[in-house]
Automatic annotation (TrEMBL):
This is DUF1934 domain-containing protein. It comes from the Bacteria. InterPro entries: Calycin, DUF1934. SUPFAM superfamilies: Lipocalins.
């Protein structure tokens, strides 16, 4: 296996679930991405097309205890996920800024040969102090 300091091309499969009005809505997207290890963290990067805002560059920083999601482009945000913790951030959209609060219920990173291959996050979200439901992200990383 590679020593980790070199950039690896990967396939990123992102499944997002959102609990709305008693029902789960699910979307799945696939992206070309990169994976690299720096110090004690892994970084995953990919570009996504977001409806109404265009291209957004997404970076996930994975550590033993937290995941940080950074989006830059048509929207920008820095969202921190830490199991059992409530975190605050700002979501900058074309329609203006939104105050976000995230309460992370589940955070799991699965490794194979010391390389991250799957990320799972379950959280509750508030936007401008209004409850915005339960959310789940599952990110599968392949070659």
């Amino acid at each position: 296996m590679e020593c980790g300091s070199s950039m690896q091309d990967i396939q990123v499969k992102l499944t997002a679930r959102h609990h709305v009005e008693g029902n789960w809505e699910e979307t799945t997207h696939s992206y070309e991405g990169k994976r690299v290890q720096k110090a004690s963290a892994w970084y995953l990067t990919y570009k996504e097309q977001m409806e109404g805002v265009g291209e957004v560059s997404t970076t996930l920083k994975l550590t033993d205890t937290s995941i940080t999601l950074v989006r830059q482009g048509g929207v920008s945000t820095r969202q921190q996920f830490e199991k059992g913790a409530s975190t605050h951030s700002t979501y900058q959209s074309p329609y203006g800024p939104f105050a976000m609060e995230t309460l992370t219920n589940k955070l799991r990173i699965r490794y194979e040969a010391e390389v991250p291959v799957q990320v799972e996050i379950a959280y509750q979200l508030w936007m401008n102090e209004q409850y915005a439901g339960e959310h789940e992200l599952k990110i599968e990383l392949g070659k």
